[in-house]
Design goal:
Blueprint: E1 5-10, H1 20-34, E2 38-43, E3 60-63, H2 70-78, E4 82-86, H3 88-101, E5 106-110, H4 115-126, H5 133-138, H6 140-151, E6 154-157, H7 160-168, E7 177-179, H8 189-192, E8 204-207, H9 213-233, E9 239-242, H10 248-251, E10 260-264, H11 269-275, E11 278-281, H12 291-298, E12 303-305, H13 307-310, H14 327-339, H15 341-358, H16 361-377, H17 379-385, H18 387-411
Parallel strand pairs: 1-2, 1-4, 2-3, 4-5, 5-6, 6-7, 8-9, 8-11, 9-10, 11-12
Helix pairs in contact: 2-3, 3-6, 3-18, 6-18, 9-14, 12-15
Length: about 425
């Protein structure tokens, strides 16, 4: 590599204590730091109360402007060997500028999840129709996201389901994709022995930020269709909903009478999770991997979830015992696990095995480094054989480029 510099173009500044996307981004950042890369993180968005202080890690934080040629000089001066686009929108906005100004930089797209897949599923659920892959393929947002994947040198795909979808249905060459799920430290006995046991835990928990549409749908579904069934059988239990950015319609659901408690944001989520008896993850649409589901397992908290909740995890068949898609089945399973210590322990062990077998930080970190070194050595050949990516870069980015330049010129009037 011509330098050890990495430029990350963030859709937002990372919020690891508020969003799964923030956790994912910080995992990537820590990986680059471990490999001794010098990181510059740039974003067009404003900082929030939940934004991580990246300067504390020795990372240069740079605000950048959209549709402005100041980015060109900034990129040339930095001259990174790797540019990471945080979701396809950033590749759309800055991909052509990166290609023009630092053509030798390896361009990596971190998809987080397939936004188009989540959007398509939400659309079908809103009209109560069954989702089909053809629905996803027909959407404009899908074409935009796929174009970004083809234009990039490498796309990081968090879900095994999504990488299979891209390879089998869209025929994206495997050389353009890398399966990189959440990366966790192994859960050994030194960790698991400190988890509060079944008898020391109480109540149900739901984790999720209020800006994420699948979370809002899940909370509404819990409140109207699932929680009343659980509460009828377990009248002393409560459901605690945690997360930032909750809209008023959710905050107004807080009720001591029903035990449906809206708790808002907390900084120490691990403590909250490890003291809860059961993690409820009733997602009806979405994509990628579900951070809230895995966060529970990282703290020894079993879950009840849906088929969407377990999607993308390699051993999803092993998770059938904790998967229910209908309110009655979901609530009955939740009640059983809440009361049955043996079943609860079985599912806690299931979660531990899942983390250790499918999210090993060391294994995935080694493979990613190997892939990046391999691409860097053969970048010209890699790009030459990516015919579709080349065509899209030539045509699509020309239109994006001139639209951006038109907006820039308009703004200068």
């Amino acid at each position: 590599m011509h330098s050890n510099k990495v430029l990350i173009l963030g859709l937002t500044w990372p919020e690891p204590l508020a969003t799964a996307a923030g956790i994912r981004m910080m995992q990537l950042i820590h990986w680059f730091l471990e490999k001794k890369f010098q990181i510059t993180f740039a974003s067009t968005s404003a900082h929030t109360d939940y934004s991580e202080n990246l300067t504390g890690y020795g990372i240069d934080q740079q605000p950048i402007k959209l549709n402005h040629n100041s980015f060109d000089e900034f990129a040339r001066m930095l001259n990174p060997s790797i540019v990471v686009f945080d979701r396809y929108i950033m590749e759309e906005q800055f991909g052509w500028r990166v290609a023009e100004n630092v053509p030798n930089a390896l361009r990596i797209l971190d998809t987080e999840d397939l936004h188009s897949l989540r959007s398509s599923r939400e659309k079908k659920l809103s009209v109560q129709k069954e989702f089909k892959i053809s629905d996803w393929l027909s959407m404009d947002i899908t074409k935009r996201e796929l174009a970004s994947i083809f234009r990039s040198d490498l796309s990081l795909i968090i879900s095994e389901f999504e990488i299979k979808l891209l390879q089998d249905i869209v025929k994206v060459d495997e050389s353009l994709l890398f399966h990189l799920p959440f990366m966790y430290e192994q859960l050994d006995e030194s960790i698991t022995k400190n988890w509060p046991p079944f008898d020391k835990r109480q109540h149900f928990v739901f984790i999720g930020n209020g800006k994420h549409a699948p979370n809002i749908d899940a909370i509404l579904w819990l409140n109207t269709n699932i929680w009343p069934l659980i509460r009828a059988k377990l009248p002393e239990s409560e459901l605690h909903v945690y997360g930032p950015y909750m809209p008023d319609k959710i905050c107004k659901m807080d009720s001591a009478k029903t035990g449906f408690r809206i708790k808002g944001w907390v900084s120490d989520l691990a403590s909250i999770m490890s003291n809860a008896k059961l993690n409820l993850v009733p997602l009806r649409f979405g994509a990628g991997l579900k951070g809230k589901f895995l966060d529970g397992f990282m703290n020894g908290t079993p879950a009840v979830t849906t088929s969407i909740g377990v999607e993308g995890i390699g051993d999803s068949d092993a998770l059938i015992p904790i998967t229910q898609d209908e309110p009655i089945g979901f609530s009955n399973l939740a009640i059983e696990l809440y009361q049955n210590k043996d079943k609860w322990n079985e599912n806690q062990n299931l979660g531990t095995e899942l983390i250790n077998n499918h999210f090993n930080k060391v294994v995935f970190g080694k493979e990613l480094y190997k892939k990046i070194i391999e691409l860097d050595k053969n970048l010209d050949e890699h790009r030459a054989t990516n015919i579709i990516g080349g065509i899209l870069a030539h045509h699509t980015l020309q239109s994006t480029k001139y639209l951006s330049k038109w907006i820039e010129a308009k703004n200068n009037l």
